Task: structure prediction
Amino acid sequence: MVAGAVFFTVYFTFINIRLFPLAISVVRGKYDYLDTRMPPAQSAQPNVSQEGDIPDTIKDESSQGEVSHFQALATAVSGTVGLGNIAGVAVAIALGGPGATFWMIIAGLIGMSTKFVECTLGVKYRDVDANGTVYGGPMYYLSKGLKGTKASFLGKPLAILFAMLCIGGSFGGGNAFQSNQASAQIISMTGFDNPSAGFYIGLVLAIIVGLVIIGGIKRIAQVTEKIVPFMAGIYIIASLIIIFAHFSLIDDAIMVIIDQAFTPAAGLGGFFGVMIQGFRRAVFSNEAGAGSAAIAHSAVRTSYPASEGIVSLLEPFIDTVVICTMTALVIVIFNMNGLFDYSDANTSSVLIKATGERIGGVDLTSAAYNDVIPNFSYVLTIAVILFAFSTMISWSYYGLQAWKYLFGRSKVADISYKLLFLAFVVIGASATLGAVIQFSDAMILAMVFPNMIGLFFLFPKVKEELNKYMAAIKNSKNKNVPKFSDKTIS
Result:
């Protein structure tokens, strides 16, 4: 993942920084008019290929889609901005110390380039069925994109492998981990310490999630475009209040993070351990290289695949560089007086010296926020539930797309997956954090391998798409792009 992210960053001449302003403009709809200058796709024909393509409309397929740039970004961000930003950062600091934060930020910055590559490919090789429903993601750009290349024999096997792992990831990190930490926060706040509490909380969450995912990507996008800005806003404002309440400690906290990133107490072994923890939690949080977000971005309405790739640049930045960093700063500032020792055990929790209590995950984050904003745990509980909820509904879509790739696009396949997914909501809420996070890590990590292999073969196609889109923008500014009228099309 790291090697690929560095390579794509250099190959595309630091596109993560260079086209950041353009990404904001595209999300705001500044270049939506370019799509109206393309001839509309022909009416779908009944003869659909094995891969789901309509032979007579393949050339115009990219002008179709189900959601806007902002909705696609909101759906993808809701799948990444979750409890990895709250509980995951606490786990990284507990295991790797403050230095893990530095490597999380680095992974987020270079991961922007990887996200650009995979999301551009997601749109380029997507399928659109006779009803206009979009099917996309690594399963499709691995199986379709690798055809005709030296790695054509790898296409289908890698696509099948990715689909299987994506389903596992949707049950684990995108579901069980979210419901587990949401349940833990609710129990911590209410004091409802009953052996069956997790089960009942999971059951309620499963019912609410079920009401949304029945409606498919359009319903999911409509919900996430409202929840994501709201929940991110609450969390960022609270984080800024705490950080600026300790304004004099900000530079000290940053120095601790940088110092521990390169000179951890454990020496060389500790250095690699800290780096690995930072990269691991960053990948778990923003999923750059895992290929999952490409599934959501594939559903966008655009005539240029690279336009959505550029939009996706914002995702790791929002998720890791902004939100994860804020969480880390709050926790590091909280511990400036030495309330606990970093990496004091090979666990995802820390020992509070004053009370002898061991806390970790969302509980550690909650304690850090409560230290400055009394009773903030109640607000954090709402944020945690919203984070968990939005992540689960987005990952339900990812897993469903992979499920349908393997088992077909029938109604039976649709319902069977959704029932299994809802069952894992309940299972996750009832299980222990250690078991859930190990399974989740394994699935997310495993998804990286087939996806990154495909990206290494297909990145020249991304370059072509980027050149097309940048040329379209340049020509439109020079007023050289003709608008298509009905007469022109006919």
